[in-house]
Amino acid sequence: MDRSTVNVFFDEVMLGHNPEVDLPFLPSRVEKRVRAVLEGLDFKWSYPEHPGRLIEIKSYLEEHPIEGVHFKSGPPATYDQLARVHTASYLDYILSLKGKRAWLDKDTTAVSPDSITAALSASGNAIAAVESVVKGECDSAFALVRPPGHHAEPVRARGFCLINNVAVAASHAIAKLGCEKVLIIDWDAHHGNGTQDIFWADPNVLFFDTHCAAPFYPGSGDLDEVGEGLGEGYTINVPLPETAGDVAFEKVFREILVPAADHFEPDLVLVSAGFDPHRNDMALNLTFDGFKVITSIVQDIAKKHCDGKLALVLEGGYNLTSLSHGVHAVLEVLTGGEVPEVFEMGVKDAAAAAEFHRSAFSDDE
Ligand SMILES: [Zn+2]
């Protein structure tokens, strides 16, 4: 069988973002009482968005190579590229933090001396991924980047995010690569509030987001948040209960995303690919087969409307096993691997057990 090619973008400078947690700050959501106890224990807040995430993905992909995957790296994003989605005052502030350690936001967003370099590389590699698919250098692309981006708003760092990588990449495609309509799919477990905010009134970007419903962080992404002005109807939120798994996701993607994409007719498809909806991670209940199915639906949308032009940008995913295996599962589908059928959890096992026991209670031989 023919394998498709996938350019995977990565740069070691993104490992330099390492907000160590010896800073005298505990996120405000830790209650005063709990904080007092933790301080008494000499507690160190551990920062879950750490360099080990990318190291684990990279080493798993090297140990389990996939034919058709080629590693690349792109240059850091420029000020002008970032200024398409962030304000000048915010960018000046962020850039002034180069070489420093600081907390930016009570929602656990911090920087270490090399964080700004890492963040510019993350956005730059997201842009490079988009350029490589638009220019036809590969069938699809995956930017393995950090810090993640989808919580970053035009003027604010939030939830581990400094620069909104997927938004920078989408804006670059529209400004410089001749794209007119970009579909962004955000399947991270958390709502992509930053991406929604940036394209809220923009009819050239259709933003589709599945996430664990409020009050789960960041608390936005209700059904009735649909965009405004010219952008009304171009934001689609699908808040889901924590129990939602493969079958629910397949239904949402087939019954909401596919018709929306048919109506919108994108000329580029981007994914904010978080792996925290995996059942062993933060919220929601996807398995690796579920990730394969939604990847395949997204790939079919890209094939139908825009010659397969599809680029994924890493967002969250904090359980190192489900993160690295999840990326691998997605890349298998992107390169042309098989797509499984998904079932409600346990149904296949129940059917096999029923088959095993059936003869015991039957007179038929
Ligand atoms: Zn997330």
Account of the 3D structure:
The relative contact order is 0.14. Helix 5 (115-134) crosses helix 6 (165-176), helix 8 (246-264) packs parallel to helix 9 (288-306) and helix 9 runs parallel beside helix 10. The longest helix has 20 residues, at 115-134. This protein has 11 helices and 10 strands. It is of the alpha/beta class and 365 residues long. Helix 9 (288-306) links the parallel strand 9 (268-273) and strand 10. The chain starts with 5 loop residues before the first strand and ends in a 7-residue tail after the last helix. The chain has a single domain, classed as Histone deacetylase domain (Arginase, Chain A). Bound molecules: zinc ion.
- Give the overall form: globular
- What is the spatial order of strands in the main beta sheet? 2-1-5-10-9-6-7-8
How many strands in all? 10
Order of helices and strands: EHHEHHEEHEHEHEEHEHEHH
Number of domains as seen in the coordinates = 1
Taken as a percent bin, the fraction of beta residues is 5-15%
**CA(first)-CA(last) distance:** 42 Å
Radius of gyration: 21 Å
CATH first level: Alpha Beta
Task: Write down the overall mean pLDDT.
Answer: 92
The CATH architecture category equals 3-Layer(aba) Sandwich
CATH topology: Arginase, Chain A
Oligomer type: single chain
Q: In terms of per-residue confidence, which ranges show pLDDT below 50 for 5 or more consecutive residues?
A: 24-30
Helical content class:
25-40%
Derived from helix and strand composition plus strand pairing, the structural class reads: alpha/beta
* CATH homology group: Histone deacetylase domain
The largest pleated sheet is described as:
8 strands, parallel
Number of helices: 11
Query: Ligands in the structure?
Result: zinc ion
